[in-house]
């Protein structure tokens, strides 16, 4: 619902999630522009939950740095990025 409302008002939506599962690209159909996991490495659920605040803070900083970096790139026409197709060598 948050993504849908944000899209209706022209706002970009970035989701920071614990993990990214199979089929996650489907969230783009409800208004999510990008998504990323906050976990820096595989770990137990107990550790992930115990350090969730730390991981969320770090992931937020990384995301904001990428946004900042992107804002400094020269504007040019580009093809839309779907994020749903990967070369077979990446799978």
Question: What would you say this structure looks like, in words?
Answer:
The chain is mainly α and 91 residues long. The chain has one domain. It has helices spanning 2-8, 45-50, 52-71, and strands spanning 14-17, 34-37. The termini are far apart.
How are the SSEs ordered, and which strands pair?
Layout: H1 2-8, E1 14-17, E2 34-37, H2 45-50, H3 52-71
Parallel strand pairs: 1-2
Series of H and E elements: HEEHH
Shape annotation: globular
Domain count: 1
- Provide the β-strand percentage band: 5-15%
Kindly, what is the distance between the CA atoms of the first and last residues, rounded to a whole number of angstroms? Answer: 31 Å
Q: Work out the radius of gyration.
A: 15 Å
Class by helix and strand content?
mainly alpha
**pLDDT below 50 for ≥5 consecutive residues: which ranges?**
87-91
* Overall helicity: 25-40%
What's the number of helices? Answer: 3
Mean pLDDT: 87
The largest sheet, given as strand count, sense and whether it forms a barrel, is: 2 strands, parallel
Task: Kindly list the characteristics that best describe this protein.
91 residues, mainly alpha, two-stranded parallel sheet, 2 strands
